Amino acid sequence: MLSAATRTLILRQRPRAFHSSAVARSDHGHYHHLPFNFPGEKKGVFAIKLFAFMASGFSIPLIAAGYQLKKSGGAS
């Protein structure tokens, strides 16, 4: 059985409220779904650069695995 002091402390504890920091808020109330701005209206150039970045990042492990399999004689 809990003492009166312990019960009082448990009942006084409340969950903390969530407060966002000023860094998490957007400038002047504008909503941006990306953490950076596009350089002007060059969305096509950005899409090409993003695709190249993602393709290289996803292909490097596959190329390395294929190389290791070929080196060990496991792939025909």
Automatic annotation (TrEMBL):
Stretches that traverse the bilayer: 46-67
GO CC list: mitochondrial inner membrane; respiratory chain complex IV
Entry keyword set: Membrane, Mitochondrion, Mitochondrion inner membrane, Transit peptide, Transmembrane, Transmembrane helix
Membrane-topology annotation of the record: Single-pass membrane protein
GO biological process: mitochondrial electron transport, cytochrome c to oxygen
Matches recorded under SUPFAM superfamilies: Mitochondrial cytochrome c oxidase subunit VIIc (aka VIIIa) (SSF81427)
Family: Belongs to the cytochrome c oxidase VIIc family.
Protein name: Cytochrome c oxidase subunit 8, mitochondrial
